Amino acid sequence: MGAFHKVQSFRNRLFQRGSPMRSQVLPANLFQNRLLSLWVHRSCKETASTWASHGVTAIFEHPPALACCPPHPVEHKVIIVGLDNAGKTTILYQFLMNEVVHTSPTIGSNVEEIVVKNTHFLMWDIGGQESLRSSWNTYYSNTEFIILVVDSIDRERLSITKEELYRMLAHEDLRKAAVLIFANKQDMKGCMTAAEISTYLTLSSIKDHPWHIQSCCALTGEGLCQGLEWMTSRIGVVKSFSIPKRVILSSSLNTRHTVRGRGLGHSCSKYLLSK
């Protein structure tokens, strides 16, 4: 059997077995390319590169050799929401880098991968300005966790936060999502306590969604680890959605560029691992 026929045969087997490649449009000549293994098995670059160096025929004669490629980890989708100036982006980058970053109001979204105890969270930080809140629902699909960030000194707009919270919880796409509320800016004089915020938001009335409220300070990182610990404890209880890997993760309309991260910082990781 010629090399081209081997390629075609393997291509057919991929489709018959319900490969993830099945839904993609794959031109026949792509399968004659020496770099095919890099394209098909881009998650295992070292192994793919080795087979590519032997040519495309070798990879099709010995496909079991690629079984060493580990499966993609399940990514648990998280949306970070709240009113503008609540501290959402600051919290996201505390998770990622364990340090404060200077931010500007988010127009669109930022997205990062945070890894805690080998659990992968894909976190979407969504802009909270009034003009952007109507678009929050475009991010809801497959969401497992909602992180609601509350500005603990913004008493005047807490009623708006409450309205947005219950609007989200009523959405069909969030019916299985767990809710983590961060009572942020606890370092500020005159701030509301987590208990006060819980009472005002009537969190005790939420029966269909697991929820937890956590005091925190985004600037120092205090309380953030405890919130993530609660989220990791919910894994396996909340139904997981497997989200495909993306080549480009950022849908941000901001000028700053978001990248994949490994998070958390060392001090935070040690805390989590010691619990």
UniProtKB/TrEMBL annotation:
Keywords: GTP-binding, Lipoprotein, Magnesium, Metal-binding, Myristate, Nucleotide-binding. GTP binds at residues 82-89, 128, 184-187. Mg(2+) binds at residues 89, 106. GO terms for biological process: protein localization to Golgi membrane. Signal peptide: none annotated. SMART domains: ARF (SM00177), SAR (SM00178). InterPro entries: P-loop_NTPase, Small_GTP-bd, Small_GTPase_ARF, Small_GTPase_ARF/SAR. The keyword Thylakoid does not apply. It comes from the Eukaryota. The keyword Metal-binding applies. Transmembrane segments: none annotated. One of its GO terms (molecular function) is GTP binding. Belongs to the small GTPase superfamily. Arf family. NCBIfam families: small_GTP. This is ADP-ribosylation factor-like protein 5B isoform X1. It comes from Lepidothrix coronata (blue-crowned manakin). The lineage of its organism: Eukaryota, Metazoa, Chordata, Craniata, Vertebrata. The gene is ARL5B.
